[in-house]
Amino acid sequence: MQRLSRRDDWRGRFAEEMDKQRREAFGWGTQDCAIGLVAGAIEAVSGVDLAEQYRGKYDGPFGAVRILRDSGSLTLGDFAAKHLPEIHPSQARIGDIGIVAADGPIGEAFCIFDASSVIVMTEQGHGRLPRADVIRAFKVG
């Protein structure tokens, strides 16, 4: 598990990253909830790229499931817990990572905590859900 530190200028970097992502189309293994949304946010906040070894290694949902299973994880939450300290969702602050229930073969999706909601990745780009939908949360710095 990695203990990350937040950069002094993390707020500006986080805002820039979210603005950049809003202009990028969804793509499995490049701009999905893990590789794009969460990895981009973590790198903006901490300067650490946790997705380097996974980027471009899959191009669909079943490839993502394979990577998850190969890591020894059954869920995205279990995968995240191998890399980041888990916290109660009520303790999450802007830039922390969450897990929400989702349709599809994985059954979960990553999200990013924002001021009043969470940012999720959809086929159309960024979406929003209420913080109350988060089932697990992880501290980024």
Itemize the secondary structure elements and their pairings.
Layout: H1 10-22, H2 33-46, H3 61-70, H4 76-81, E1 86-87, E2 97-101, E3 108-113, E4 117-122, E5 125-130, E6 134-138
Antiparallel strand pairs: 1-6, 2-3, 2-6, 3-4, 4-5
Helix pairs in contact: 1-2
Descriptive notes:
The protein has helices at 10-22, 33-46, 61-70, 76-81; strands spanning 86-87, 97-101, 108-113, 117-122, 125-130, 134-138. The protein is α+β, with helices and mostly antiparallel strands. The chain has a single domain (10-138), classed as Alpha-Beta Complex (endopeptidase fold (from Nostoc punctiforme)). A hairpin with a 2-residue loop joins strand 4 (117-122) and strand 5. Helix 1 packs antiparallel against helix 2 (33-46). The radius of gyration is 14 Å and the shape is globular.
- The CATH topology is given as endopeptidase fold (from Nostoc punctiforme)
Computed structural class = alpha+beta
Whole-Å distance between the termini?
12 Å
Broad shape: globular
> What would CATH call the class?
Alpha Beta
Radius of gyration of CA atoms, rounded to a whole number: 14 Å
The overall pLDDT, averaged over residues, is 94
Number of alpha- plus pi-helical segments = 4
Sketch the topology as an H/E string, one letter per element. Answer: HHHHEEEEEE
What percent of the residues sit in helical stretches (DSSP H or I)? 25-40%
Summarize the biggest pleated sheet. Answer: 6 strands, antiparallel
Poorly predicted parts? none
